[in-house]
Amino acid sequence: MSYVIGVDGGTESIRAFVFDLDGRPLASVATPYKTDFPNPSWAEQNPEDWWHCMGQSVKGAVAKAGGSPADILSICVDTTCCSVVALDAAGKPLRPCMIWMDVRSAKEADDVAATKDQNLRVNGGGAGPGSAEWMIPKSLWMKRHPPEIFARAEKVGEYQDYINLRLTGRWVGSLGNAAIRWHYQTQHGGVPRSLLAALDISELEGKWPETMLAPGAPIGPLTREAADHLGLPEGLMVVQGGADAFIGVIGLGVTQPGEMALITGSSHLHIGVADKVVHKPGVWGTYMDAVYPGKPIIEGGQTSTGSVIAWFKRHFAEHTSWEALNEGAAAIPPGAEGLLVLDHFQGNRTPYTDALSRGAITGLTLKHTPAHVFRAIIEGICLGTRLITDSFGEAFTPKRIVLAGGAANSPLWLQIHADTIGAPIELTEVADAPALGCAILAAHGAGRYRSIEEGASAMVRSKTVIEPNAANTRFYESEMLPRYAKLYGALKSVRG
């Protein structure tokens, strides 16, 4: 029997999975690494830690799976996106990696937006604002602080590129990462040279990988050194992955126009396969070739979702079980008897892209209980998702939504998502969607499936579908959504 390895390089750990070619996980091992926070808004990791921990995870997963390493066809890795590395000519890190949550380059992001360059079309149709998480603001910060390290850097890329360099010896970029966070647009010449020139950082192009490979493309064989480190055969095929959440789209079987991945956790990410290229305010994208060749991808996001629920539980319902909270909230009718919550506790990503927006709980009376507030928070988050799907407009209307992450553990949250959006919510058998997405790419890159879509069809299986309650949908659309949509503007007018 043949197997593939999918590796998910996350924020807190790197996880290795062994899958068969039907998409069934046989074993997995996670190895944690640390994040340093030396200053406010800074978040750093040591790239050498990624490599060390990857060796432990892959060796452990292969051993647990019980098969022979000789039966493994290929390996593919996804990683956190916007985790920027600077390397010398030998591929050694010159400084700690600024991971995705590092936003020290806020000023540089403003400088990027101020150029009004045509390559900013993927940032709300050019309306912006830019994000301090992205590649170019972080590179610009490195050039300024201090300039000598940036000058010494022969290579600037991401976590993804560093791992593939260690695996194969090739310095190649992921077209997926570049398309969504580097302002690299294949349909507009690739490298955003006019934007780099406007920022006086044209030399960055020479530090980036010259070759950009799409997800699923073979990178090359595993080197002897890498093979020894991972306990795998030398020459094993390494296949290109990409940004974790976007590879998760593949692992959820979201492949056709009108389908959307709803990835939940501390935040929400909405990634849809669109049927046309559209750039407009309130929307990130569309990105071409970021996941599937020739298919535009549209993106929305909520900054704080599960984190708000965790905040409420920690501070106001510490001694109440999750089961009791869900049971109490389920007994309350839609609308939480007058409560309305704005979910912007850490700002808003889309459609407003306002880092200074703040959360609110409105309509409180002496009648309301913690269960009311709990339900209202869930409803506010779900209404935020509905506002995002509405903001996609003509570019995208979700006809099928596949959900992964923390919300999958709450039947109430799933039902309210279905009711507010007015569309079925589907769950799949394998919860680790990014790892399965990597396995699908690995199988495709090894020639077992003719396309990524064919691989996803064979390796992803639906588990259950939550249908919307039509009466609740009508209530949310007519009563709650208009009020929710007005709340941001009303609060913006009075915030300090």
Notes on the structure:
The chain has 496 residues and is α/β, with parallel strands linked by helices. It has two domains: 3-242, Nucleotidyltransferase, domain 5, CATH 3.30.420.40; 253-428 and 461-496, 2-Layer Sandwich (Nucleotidyltransferase, domain 5), CATH 3.30.420.40. Helix content is 37%, strand content 20%. It has helices spanning 47-65, 106-114, 135-144, 147-152, 159-168, 175-181, 193-198, 204-207, 224-230, 244-251, 306-316, 322-330, 370-391, 411-421, 433-445, 452-459, 470-492, and strands at 3-9, 13-20, 25-32, 44-45, 72-79, 84-87, 97-98, 155-158, 172-174, 211-213, 218-221, 237-239, 259-264, 268-273, 284-288, 296-302, 340-342, 360-362, 400-405, 425-428, 462-466. Helix 12 crosses helix 13 (370-391). The mean pLDDT is 95.
Short description:
37% of the residues lie in helices and 20% in strands.
Main attributes?
7-stranded mixed sheet, 2 domains, 6-stranded mixed sheet, 21 strands, alpha/beta, Nucleotidyltransferase, domain 5, 496 residues, single chain
Structural class: alpha/beta
Please tell me the CATH architecture of the largest domain by its name. 2-Layer Sandwich
Query: Under the CATH scheme, which class of the largest domain?
Result: Alpha Beta
| CATH-defined superfamily of the largest domain | ATPase, nucleotide binding domain
Distance between the termini: 63 Å
Rg, Å, rounded: 22 Å
Instruction: Count helical runs.
Output: 17
pLDDT averaged residue by residue: 95
> How many domains in all?
2
Oligomeric grouping of the chains: single chain
> Can you list the strand order of the major beta sheet?
15-16-14-13-19-20-21
Unreliable spans are none
CATH fold category name of the largest domain: Nucleotidyltransferase, domain 5
Classify the beta-strand content into a percent band.
15-25%
Shape: globular
Report the helical percentage.
25-40%
What's the β-strand tally?
21
